[in-house]
Amino acid sequence: MTKIRFEKSFTQQEGIPEEGIQLAIKLMRSGRLHRYNLEANEESQASLLEKEFSLWQGVKYCVACASGGYAIQLALRTCGVRLGDKVLANAYTLAPVPGAIHNVGAHPIFVEIDGNYHIDLFDLEKKATSSKAKFLLLSHMRGHIANMDKITEICQKNKLTMIEDCAHTMGSKWNGIRSGNFGKVSAFSTQTYKHINSGEGGFLTTNDAELAAKAVVSSGSYMLYERHGAIPSDKVFRNIRLEAPNYSGRMDQMRASILRSQLPKLEKNIKRWNILYDTLSEKLCEIDGITIPNRSKKESYVGSSIQFKVTNLDSESIPKFVKSCLSRGVDLKWFGDKEPKAFTSRYDSWTYIKNVPVLTKTLSVLEKTIDMRIPLTFSKEDCAIIAKIIGSEISQYNLNSSSR
Ligand SMILES: *Cc1c(COP(=O)(O)O)cnc(C)c1O
What are the percentages of helix, strand and coil residues in the chain, rounded to 5? Predict the structure, then answer.
């Protein structure tokens, strides 16, 4: 019997909507690619995008940025993180997060994760007290939203300023409230593997007028800040415009135009993602030796990737299982790998950060965790094939390693 093979690419996103392509072509012909390089009475694409995104997100102010990592850095600076400050952060997140903390000269205090990939609430409280940190950079890593009622409470109790990293939760909600609307300031990414795609890009959002003005000027607006779409009044800018340093990191017209064409399709795409996610989740759960962590009823997620645990496999058989899935076209990532592949997500991979204690809980969760991207170019049928391949490959190793 020949084994079925999956042929599609796990890194193939959908193309840019035609309107976006046409607008980008027009911009290229005009040569006016900088967000402030406008004709008389022309509104910039970046400014329109900021307006549209802030409306969609339900937030007052929005600044389009060069990347998600840059937006995080700007968020940290504008909410007052200074040289030597401590910032609480998930021990499981993506490399640009500790990188942003390092870049502003602060020091991350890594907090354990729990079995559902959320920041561990007990460890968060413990470390908030012991470190005396005043900031929490909360990553909704891989789209998993922790109990935001409890986190908000912990932040209030410990006087922590919350900065949300919503790179994987654009469109997700907790208890009906959009992720990104809990903290003082939030960062989103529009890099290719997130929910809208401009290659690189990001947003900073906030309801705090002074913070927003600082972010606009620091993003590199010079004195042209009034050409932004979702900003506070001129008076707020007058107070800070010469005081906020220019950390040049603007978004350009091309990216803004291709994002504008995607935003109206986002709600529909979220539904499409979740059909794929739910199909995979249902089928993977039926497989012996695979578990998928519970998601709270209060969480409305966007299933653009899936994480599952291979409970019966040991660290020797997991790489073999991953390799045999890949030989059949199914591209999985193991977060427990000592040698990180493609991207780093575990605190012990960032060796520039010193004196980090061993976080046993995080390591033991990630030791069994497998991750898979779910591009929208997949169909429901594709998801069924993928689950079938995973099921047949894992069965060999389950038998070898378990005592059943
Ligand atoms: C992608 C991502 C970011 C930001 O990434 P950029 O590539 O800089 O846009 C931040 N946090 C997480 C968790 C991410 O996945």
Answer: 40, 15, 45
Same domain, 84 and 232: yes
Per-residue model confidence as pLDDT tens for the chain (404 residues): 678 999 999 999 999 999 999 999 999 999 999 999 999 999 999 999 999 999 999 999 999 999 999 999 999 999 999 999 999 999 999 999 999 999 999 999 999 999 999 999 999 999 999 999 999 999 999 999 999 999 999 999 999 999 999 999 999 999 999 999 999 999 999 999 999 999 999 999 999 999 999 999 999 999 999 999 999 999 999 999 999 999 999 999 999 999 999 999 999 999 999 999 999 999 999 999 999 988 999 999 999 999 999 999 999 999 999 999 999 999 999 998 888 888 899 999 999 999 999 999 999 999 999 999 999 999 999 999 999 999 999 998 875 544 44
Assigned domain for 4 exists = no
- Show the ligand 1 pocket: residues with CB < 6 angstroms: 67-69, 93-94, 96-97, 139, 141, 165, 167-168, 189, 191, 202
255 and 388 fall within a common domain: no
Tokens standing for residue 291: 């578990």
Question: 13 in a domain, yes or no?
Answer: no
Q: What stretch of H or E contains 364?
A: helix 360-366
Report CA(97)–ligand 1 centroid distance (Å): 7
**Phi and psi (nearest 5°) for 349?**
-85, -15
Atom 1 of ligand 1, nearest CA residue: 167
Residues of the domain holding 150: 18-264
Q: Are residues 247 and 284 in the same domain?
A: no
Strands (E), 132-229: 135-139, 161-165, 173-174, 177-178, 185-189, 202-206
In a domain, 189, yes or no: yes
Under DSSP, is residue 128 helix (H, G, I), strand (E, B) or coil?
A: helix
CA–CA dist 373, 11 (Å, integer): 8
Are 226 and 273 members of one domain? no
User: Of 264, 295, 319, which residue constitutes the final position of a domain?
Assistant: 264
Q: Whose CA is nearest to atom 9 of ligand 1?
A: 68
Note whether residue 33 is domain-resident: yes
Ligand 1 centroid to Cα of residue 68, in Å, is 5
Q: Let me know whether 181 and 256 are in one domain.
A: yes
